[in-house]
Design goal:
The chain is 13% helix and 44% strand. The protein is mainly β. It has one domain: LURP1-related (Porin).
Length: 167
């Protein structure tokens, strides 16, 4: 399966069990990807998508930055930096994306440098995580970086945990 075939389709990011830090990407009830957080309070995650694995790891204790690493590698292929209204995603090839979060509408958009919305995510209310993702535009950059599909879910989970820790 390739990302071009996902354009225009709804993909669900769900948490099958409330008691496990494991999440799935579902397309028509078929699991196309998984994300697992190895420890109970970990902010890192291991992504398995389209037969490839990546790790989302915090790169600095002092900064709100995460690196995306191919599993087992030391150098990141991308870094995303959190900001008040979302985050900036910088790929190692000098390409960047903006991720906008609208808290009132409970939506997330990943936008390319030429202002094209690539992925849209809409959070659903509930105890377990559930986000409806739509691939609006599938290009070669998205094909090389399919982990972008997991990013809205990863950020939603970490935001929920941050709120729980601080409150």
């Amino acid at each position: 399966m390739n990302l071009a075939s996902l354009a225009g389709k709804e993909i669900l990011f769900v948490q099958p069990s409330l008691f496990k830090n494991q999440y799935q990407l579902l397309l028509d009830e078929e699991v196309i990807g998984t994300m697992a957080q190895p420890r109970a309070f970990s902010r890192n995650a291991v992504i398995n998508l389209f037969e490839k694995e990546w790790e989302f790891k915090r790169t600095s204790f002092w900064k709100s930055e995460y690196g995306i690493f191919p599993y087992g590698y030391e150098l990141p292929v991308a870094v995303f930096k959190r900001k008040l209204s979302g985050c900036i995603i910088e790929l190692d090839k000098g390409i960047s994306f903006e991720m906008k979060v609208n808290l009132w509408k409970r939506t997330t958009e990943i936008i390319s440098m030429n202002d094209r919305v690539i992925i849209t995510g809409k959070k659903k209310a509930g105890i377990k995580a559930k986000i409806i993702l739509t691939v609006n535009y599938a290009d070669s950059i998205l094909a090389e970086n399919p982990w972008l599909l997991m990013l809205p879910g990863f950020l939603a989970i970490n935001s929920r945990r941050s709120a729980a820790y601080s409150g």
